[in-house]
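re the bet — no i am not wrong, look at it urself. input seq straight from the record:
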Amino acid sequence: KAKAPKGKKITLKTAKNSIRISFDGGRRLDLSKMGITTFPKCILKLTDVDELDLSRNMLKKIPSSIQMFQKLRWLDLHSNRLEELPGTIGTLQKLFYLNISNNKLTSKNLPEELNLLKNLRILNLGMNCLDSIPTSLGALKELKEIGLFDNALTSIPNSVKKLPKLKKLNAGRNPFLDSTEQEEHGDSTKCVEAFYLVQEKDLCCSCLKMCQDERDKLNKLKNVTPNPSKKPSFPLLITPNSSAKDNQEEWRLR
């Protein structure tokens, strides 16, 4: 039986050295890309931070003790292996940014307590295993941006679509059943096609190159203007064809 990867152990000293001051003066604990497989208990002694970044690790679970971070306004858990979230996440009343994209969350394991995050402005649920979105998210009246892309959604509740302050909704690449709904979300996604909830600097080299290659392909397709009636021209071709003769038999006879 294959052994599970042994993650890096984070000490309190390492955690303290990973604290940065954000642009607005807040204290940010950045433990991203550290190869962490289990939530480091030592950081429970640093619960006065304003921002916590545990993205791009191998975490499968966030403990209920996350509620101790009552000052948190920014929480990034994207690109882990999370299959569930604790209901205590709903106690983080100062949270305005929550990114849990690119995990293994299912609709069943999405905590109902998310609807308690009354100050949440940005929520990213993209690239998970969600087949439905709870209507209770309609209680997040301050929500301005939400990412639902790359899931298994067949519909989006009206309570979410009609949030009063919602400006950006990315619901691309979902198998919507209703064709009109598919077109509706296609249009809304098109309006924000340059909206990225994961910045380029946060992607690994291979993922970044793949995204850039796909973008270049799309740009080339947009720029191509086919004109079947126009004959090909090869001005630099050093052959008799360079004069673009229509009747090639003349050249063969010579």
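see?? The chain is about 20% helix and 10% strand. told u. also Strands lie at 19-21, 27-30, 51-53, 74-76, 97-99, 122-124, 145-147, 168-170. so pay up
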